């Protein structure tokens, strides 16, 4: 009887080993065929590991690739580790004066914290608290304290022609409405009349040249920035067309905030007698207004699901500022993230380059093995694992994967971060919370959509079919 039991155990182990070998062989063959069919000349690095530790597939996994937005995974984890999931950015209004009979005699200091989510409603919250503190008139200046970050708004290794777009709005200590202005263009009252153009938030320093017209000829209106800084609205809308919205970044965020604050003071019946300047908050001040952001765990949702570059870069500089002191900078952010990856995750940072938070820099270099090692560490050991995973796009459901992996057998099976630049595509994350994978594709000339569908999504299909346990 005992010998029979031993025989059955040996047979079961052998059968399981054969099954694993068969699955591994299938994965290797199917992925190689997928790459060969899609683009055999592309530079591809892949690693696939079952979260129980079993290596299922690797191809050039120790070679380094430009990872694109997958750098955001490192930044999000470093921010959670250093700040905590419940961390809130605080934008404060301080004063060195006193309020008497509604008049504040002295200066006010708007102290920025690098909050990437600050909006007009947040500034109004601060102003309402000022009103509650009895302020009806300010007989002094408003000083914008932006010292939390340095004034280098563009990251190292960014392409010069990536600027002046919503995705690359400038980063400094104060970020208001994504440091962008929303243009809403509506048809005019009758044919031949200019289109209506509304701005949000309203501010006085924006100059618009409206060359748009209402009438027949199609709906082709657009908003462009001219060389002199003005915005030009061109094209046409037909009567009855829905409004068109355009986001344009500001070039001087502090001047933008200054204009918006003046408008908000006026709207809230606060007379402002002074000027808006950039400077440092002095000692011996008291707080008369504050706005707190949502918790970091919620800020990570747009950072990862929507792959928001400004959010990621603000977090990058923030961890640098918290770890090494103000002002936060690209260099301090790089040092803080790399220290986290070395000291907490156990990666060899001498074998990788991370210089920005959003991944737009082509200086960044990461291997598939390093990324999968990070993903496995997150799954096995990271205290904030659930917060990080909850912020990842879900295939066929939301974020940058909403329109991908929509086939019924793939929907909701993949949680992964995307990365896209010209000639660069990547997908790194988890399949069924059983597999960690990293796919880097560089050096292709085909469309990014084709690479994503025929390589990245197809590999996820292969892995799902393999039923790796």
TrEMBL record:
Keywords: Carboxypeptidase, Hydrolase, Protease, Signal
Name of the protein this chain belongs to: D-alanyl-D-alanine carboxypeptidase dacC
Transmembrane segments: none
Gene name for this UniProt entry: dacC
Pfam family membership, one: Peptidase_S13
EC number, UniProt record: 3.4.16.4
Record carries keyword Nucleotide-binding: no
The keyword Signal belongs to this UniProt entry's keyword annotation: yes
A GO MF term: serine-type D-Ala-D-Ala carboxypeptidase activity
Family according to the record: Belongs to the peptidase S13 family.
Stored NCBIfam families: PBP4
PANTHER family: D-ALANYL-D-ALANINE CARBOXYPEPTIDASE, PENICILLIN-SENSITIVE CARBOXYPEPTIDASE A
Residues spanning the signal sequence: 1-17
């Amino acid at each position: 009887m005992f010998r029979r039991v031993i025989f059955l155990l040996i047979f079961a182990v052998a059968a399981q080993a054969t099954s694993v070998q068969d699955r591994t062989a299938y994965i290797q063959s199917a992925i190689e065929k997928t790459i060969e069919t899609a683009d055999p000349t592309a530079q591809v690095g892949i690693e696939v590991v079952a979260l129980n530790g079993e290596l299922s597939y690797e191809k050039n996994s120790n070679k380094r690739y430009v990872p694109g937005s997958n750098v955001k995974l490192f930044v999000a984890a470093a921010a959670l580790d250093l700040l905590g999931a419940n961390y809130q950015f605080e934008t404060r209004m301080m004063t060195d004066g006193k309020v008497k009979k509604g008049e504040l005699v002295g200066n006010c200091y708007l102290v920025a914290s690098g909050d990437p989510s600050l909006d007009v409603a947040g500034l109004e919250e601060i102003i309402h608290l000022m009103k509650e503190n009895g302020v009806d008139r300010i007989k002094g200046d408003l000083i914008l304290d932006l010292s939390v970050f340095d004034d280098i708004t563009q990251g190292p290794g960014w392409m010069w022609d990536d600027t002046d777009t919503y995705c690359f709005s400038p980063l400094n200590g104060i970020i208001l409405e994504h440091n962008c202005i929303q243009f809403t263009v509506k048809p005019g009252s009758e044919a031949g009349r200019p289109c209506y153009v509304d701005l949000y938030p309203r501010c006085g320093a924006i100059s618009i040249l409206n060359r748009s017209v209402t009438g027949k000829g199609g709906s082709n209106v657009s908003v462009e920035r001219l060389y002199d800084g003005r915005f030009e609205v061109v094209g046409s809308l037909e009567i009855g067309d829905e409004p068109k919205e355009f986001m344009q970044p500001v070039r001087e965020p502090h001047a933008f905030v200054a204009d918006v604050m003046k408008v908000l003071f006026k709207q809230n019946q606060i007379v402002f007698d002074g000027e808006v300047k950039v400077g440092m908050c002095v000692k011996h001040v008291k707080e008369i207004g504050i706005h707190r952001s949502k918790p970091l765990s919620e800020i990570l949702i747009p950072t990862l699901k929507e792959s928001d570059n400004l959010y990621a870069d603000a977090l990058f500089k923030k961890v640098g500022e918290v770890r090494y002191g103000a002002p936060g900078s690209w260099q301090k952010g790089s040092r803080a993230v790399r220290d986290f990856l070395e000291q907490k995750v156990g990666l060899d940072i001498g074998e990788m380059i991370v210089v920005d938070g959003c991944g737009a820099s082509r200086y960044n270099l990461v291997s598939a093995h390093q990324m999968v090692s990070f993903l496995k560490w997150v799954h096995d050991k990271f205290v904030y694992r659930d917060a990080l995973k909850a912020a990842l796009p879900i295939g066929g459901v939301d974020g940058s994967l909403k329109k991908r992996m929509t086939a019924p057998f793939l929907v909701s099976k993949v949680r992964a971060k995307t990365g896209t630049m010209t000639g660069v595509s990547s997908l790194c994350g988890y399949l069924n919370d059983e597999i960690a994978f990293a796919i880097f594709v560089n050096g292709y000339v085909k469309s990014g959509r084709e690479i994503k569908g025929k390589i990245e999504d197809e590999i996820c299909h292969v892995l799902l079919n393999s039923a790796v346990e």
